[in-house]
Design goal:
Order of helices and strands: EEEHHHEEHEEEEEEEHEEEHEEEH
CATH superfamily of the largest domain: Fumarylacetoacetase-like, C-terminal domain
Number of strands: 18
Number of domains: 2
CATH topology of the largest domain: Fumarylacetoacetate hydrolase, domain 2
Strand content: 25-35%
Helix content: 10-25%
Length: 296
């Protein structure tokens, strides 16, 4: 099952994919919440309602092609928990020793953009870097979750581009500022339920392309801490809730590690793709605040 959050005619809606068509759940199943996180939290009952739509999609609920705008698949997650240095080759290229405990940092919803929306290069820096990743979405909350039970708490997966402002990332020992500029966290296009993928999204090929050239190419089997382990470790400290997002890390090939560095620039197009999940595509543009300041 593949679900997405869209905007059309001034309203937000959740859609489910049926072949090449998107079905507006607000029309096809009006008793469902109009929020994907709430549908995920609805568990089996909500899933059965969506499956009923897929068995007999009403024609009046089919979205007109090209009319809707893709929003972040979860526009306002309660938590966005990101994992740094989770691929050994990326730790090596970044000059860090591989950590024995996940390098964790937070993103905030204000940084998110959807599929097709522009990733923004801010006025303060030209060091805008790509990081193709897979995000796991919590479906059943809990604390002190065992590794053996952890994947039962994962509802599904989506793609993420953890675009980073590198000079701001390294202004202090904490990475938070460099990871939270507005318009830098691309998330989508679709939430893919866990049953459509291997357990823990294992064995998937993850690729990032910049202007059509492959710049990152790895298997999720190369992650140091797999999805189940991340869920268990995070739940040692905090209660995970339905709709929380765990962004699982990026492989080698980032622009910072290249000689010379390869930064994303306005006019570029960046794509993140993974087997079974789909393709997240975003142009790169100047932040409007930068344009306004330059014109002043």
């Amino acid at each position: 099952m593949r679900l997405s959050t869209l905007a059309m005619d001034g309203r937000r809606l959740v859609a489910v994919r049926s072949g090449d068509e998107l079905i507006d759940l607000s029309l096809a199943a009006p008793r469902l919440p109009d929020d994907l996180a709430a549908i995920i939290a609805g568990g089996g009952e909500a899933r059965e309602a969506v499956e009923a739509v897929l068995r007999s999609p009403p024609r009046q609920a089919v979205l007109p092609s090209g009319r809707a705008q893709w929003l972040p698949v979860l526009p306002h997650p309660g938590k966005i928990l990101c994992v740094g240095l989770n691929y050994r080759d990326h730790s090596a290229e970044s000059g860090f020793q591989q950590p024995a405990y996940p390098a964790l940092f937070a993103r905030f919803a204000s940084s998110l953009v959807g599929h097709g929306a522009a990733i923004l290069r801010p006025r303060q820096s030209e060091q805008l870097d790509y990081e193709g990743e897979i995000a796991a979405v919590i479906g059943r909350g809990g604390r002190h979750i065992s590794r053996a039970a952890a994947l039962d708490h994962v509802a599904g997966y989506a793609l993420f581009n953890d675009a980073s402002i590198r000079d701001y990332q390294t202004k202090s020992p904490q990475w938070t500022v460099g990871k939270n500029f507005d318009g830098t966290g691309a998330f989508g296009p679709e939430f893919v339920t866990a049953d459509e993928l291997p357990p823990g999204a294992a064995g998937l090929r993850l690729r990032t392309r910049l202007n059509g050239t492959v710049v990152q190419d790895a298997s999720t089997d190369d992650m140091v801490f797999g999805v189940a382990e991340l869920v268990a470790i995070l739940s040692e400290a905090m209660t995970l809730e339905p709709g929380d997002v765990i962004v699982t890390g990026t492989p080698a090939g980032v622009g910072l590690a290249r000689k010379p560095p390869l930064w994303m620039r306005p006019g570029d197009v960046v794509e993140v793709e993974a087997d079974g999940i789909g393709l997240l595509r975003n142009p790169v543009a100047e932040d409007g605040a930068r344009l306004a300041a330059d014109a002043a």
